[in-house]
Each structure stands twice: as structure tokens, then as C-alpha cells.
Specification:
Radius of gyration: 34 Å
Order of helices and strands: EEHEHEEEEHEEHEEHHHHHHHH
Oligomer: single chain
Helix content: 25-40%
Mean pLDDT: 82
Number of helices: 12
Structural class: alpha+beta
Number of domains: 3
Largest sheet: 8 strands, mixed
Shape: elongated
Low-confidence stretches: 295-308
Distance between the termini: 48 Å
Strand content: 15-25%
């Protein structure tokens, strides 16, 4: 049975994080974050850092744009935005939306916990947003967790970029809305995530240049309308790759593989490609004067004639075949170029066993099938 409140919860697997800044030291040797105009790869030893060589080969040392795909339509999942308050010893201690917050508190003092706090609990309380004392102190700020896939980098999962820039948050929200209006969706559309310079004027300050996130598409409206109708595979890999893949599938998995999905009884009823081709041939109708009342001789082709000496039924091993023996039959089929339809005809039409699947075979029947293979009759 599912666990209420847990089983229905889903979380996208995160491969690693990219950053928008680096750590530098001041004259006193104190580290502080410094914004840069490029995406910063995961630090050595952190999640995702094992893919550094792929990143550098694909995007260079300091990329300003990445080819991305958003896996879901849910903007809460791909671009989560909250007021977030962090502490050095506890990490995230409060998250709010401007109205309601989930806050970790010290049960003894009622304040935010510190490294000496022993008992803590999460408590729901009103969120004051920018009017919160922690926000005014600089401990709390707006943070967007942007999650996306990198189709050119190995791994099935998402990468995350965090931004506390109001302009970046506005840009991403506006771009997602525009993309959805043009393509009809935001998921599985190849896009560019970029870092671009803009001029801003802070309240009471002077103009300055900052670098913000943006989502771009290089399609014109006609191209966008066409792409909106295509499958994710066509969009990501391109029609040439899809065509090549389909051709490879036909060559590597010929039609006889489809027989594996059928029971032996169903396979026995299927016609082989040769039989279908013969039935499709147009044969000239016999002229009236050429008709005859003589019976047409029937030619009976026996691919698997009955053995000369039939084993005593009482001595047959009627235990079910093992998985290894079933695997042997599949191996024989693959090496001989036969299909499971041929095995089905042998079992059900020639031998009259009426089995529906290989697992229904008994060991004595398996022995007869092996004997037929050894004699070159299968």
C-alpha cells in the first residue's frame, strides 16, 4: 500500500549544480562570492564534476550560453521561487512566499537555530517578505532554483542554477510564458540558457552593468510552429538521426523479433514473409476449357518428420523447462535464422502439443526440439 504524504511525492534527480559566481579573497584573506559573466562548472569533487571534460569539450572553459531542455510543464518544479533564509551552521532555515513561511526555530528560544541549538522544529508562520527583519539584515533574499536538462551532457537528470537576481527571475518568468504561448508548451523544447549584460539603476544609485539569465530560441515563428508538432526525439536529435535510428532498428531487430511478443500458439497462426509474398502474387485465372475434374494432389511438406521410434510416454520427463533451457531455444532460433513462428508450428501443428509459451514446455519436449536442431531440421 502507498504511504500517504510520501509515495505520491516526486523529485527530479539532480546531477549537479552550475554557478553564476566564484569565490575570491579580499586583502585580509576572507572569502566572498563574486558574480561573473559565464556559467561556472561544478567544483572538483562536487556532484557532476566527473563530467567536467565533457563540459569543456562541448562548451569551452567559460560558456555564456547552454543548450537546455526543461523536462516538465510545472513551473514550480523547473523554476521554484521563494524568499529563502540561510544560516552557516544549518543551511536553509526559512522559506516563504510573502504570505506564509516554513521556519526552523529553536524550541527553547523561539528564534532561528544556531550551531548551539539542541532541539529544533519546523513551524508554519506568516511571511513578511521584504519587511522581514532577516531580509533587511541581508540574511534572507529572493532565490530562484532553475532546473533543466543538458541533452549534450551524459546523465538522465537535471542540473540546477540558483539566482538571487530580481532581473533574472523576471526574465525567466517572462521567457517561459512567451515560449509556452509560441510553442504551446515549455517541456522538451530545445532552448538556449544565456547570461547577458544589461544596464540597471538601483534605487538611489547610479547606472551599472550586471549580468542576468535569459532563455532564448533561435527559431522564427514558422519554425516554432513546425517544431511544436514534432516529437521530443525529432527536436533533440533531428530528422536525419531519427531516420537513421529507424533504419538501424529494422536491420538489427528484423520482423521475427516481433514474434517474441506472441505466444507460440499465436505465432503458429502467423504467416511467414514468404507465405505472405506468395499469397500476394497475382496468378492468372484458369481458362474455362482448361478446367479439369481431376483432384489436385496435395503436397505435404514435413519440416520436422516424426522420429522413427516414439519414446514411451511413461518414461518422459514431464517437469517444466528451466529458464536456461528457454534461453537455449532462443539461442538456437537466433543462430539458425528461424523465427518463433517456426517453433510454434513445429510444436502445435506438427507435434500437436498445443503449448502457448516456451515456459509451458516440458523437458521431454525440450529434448525433442534440441534433437531437431542437431539434425538440421530446425
Amino acid at each position: 500500500m502507498p504511504i500517504k504524504g510520501l509515495t505520491e511525492q516526486r523529485r527530479m534527480p539532480r546531477i549537479g549544480k552550475l554557478h553564476l559566481g566564484i569565490k575570491v579573497k579580499n586583502a585580509k584573506g576572507v572569502e566572498y562570492p563574486k558574480a561573473v559573466d559565464y556559467f561556472v562548472y561544478p567544483a572538483e569533487g562536487s556532484p557532476g564534476s566527473e563530467l567536467l571534460d565533457q563540459f569543456k569539450k562541448e562548451y569551452g572553459e567559460k560558456p555564456k550560453e547552454l543548450e537546455v531542455i526543461f523536462p516538465l510543464e510545472d513551473e514550480e518544479s523547473i523554476a521554484s521561487q521563494y524568499y529563502r533564509c540561510y544560516s552557516k551552521s544549518r543551511g536553509l532555515v526559512c522559506r516563504g512566499d510573502g504570505e506564509t513561511a516554513m521556519r526552523m526555530i529553536d524550541t527553547t528560544t523561539g528564534d532561528l537555530p544556531n550551531k548551539d541549538s539542541k532541539d529544533t522544529e519546523l513551524k508554519e508562520m506568516p511571511c513578511a517578505g521584504r519587511e522581514c527583519p532577516d531580509y533587511k539584515k541581508g540574511n534572507c533574499r529572493e532565490v530562484m532554483n532553475l532546473q533543466f536538462m543538458l541533452p549534450k551532457i551524459s546523465g538522465i537528470g537535471v542540473w540546477q542554477v540558483d539566482s538571487g537576481s530580481i532581473n533574472s527571475i523576471r526574465n525567466i518568468n517572462s521567457c517561459l510564458e512567451m515560449i509556452k504561448a509560441v510553442y504551446g508548451r515549455v517541456s522538451m523544447i530545445p532552448l538556449l540558457l544565456t547570461i547577458e549584460p544589461i544596464e540597471v539603476t538601483p534605487p538611489g544609485g547610479t547606472k551599472k552593468t550586471v549580468h542576468v539569465l535569459n532563455i532564448r530560441s533561435m527559431d522564427n515563428m514558422i519554425e516554432a510552429a513546425i517544431k511544436a508538432r514534432k516529437s521530443p526525439l525529432e527536436l533533440i536529435a533531428g530528422p536525419e538521426v531519427v531516420a537513421t535510428a529507424e533504419k538501424d532498428i529494422e536491420e538489427m531487430w528484423p520482423p521475427d523479433e516481433e514474434d517474441r511478443k506472441l505466444s507460440l500458439e499465436e505465432a503458429a497462426e502467423r504467416k511467414t514473409p514468404k507465405e505472405i509474398a506468395e499469397a500476394a502474387e497475382e496468378k492468372p485465372e484458369a481458362k474455362p476449357e482448361e478446367k479439369t475434374n481431376e483432384p489436385t494432389p496435395q503436397v505435404e511438406e514435413e519440416l520436422f518428420p516424426e522420429p522413427e521410434v516414439e519414446p514411451d510416454p511413461a518414461e518422459r520427463d514431464k517437469t517444466p523447462v528451466t529458464q536456461e533451457q528457454i534461453a537455449d531455444i532462443h539461442k538456437f532460433v537466433g543462430e539458425s535464422g528461424m523465427t518463433l513462428a517456426d517453433i510454434g508450428k513445429y510444436c502445435n501443428q506438427d507435434k500437436g502439443w498445443r503449448v502457448r509459451d516456451l515456459k509451458d514446455l516440458q523437458k521431454w519436449q525440450y529434448g525433442e526440439i534440441c534433437e531437431a536442431f542437431k539434425k538440421g531440421k530446425a
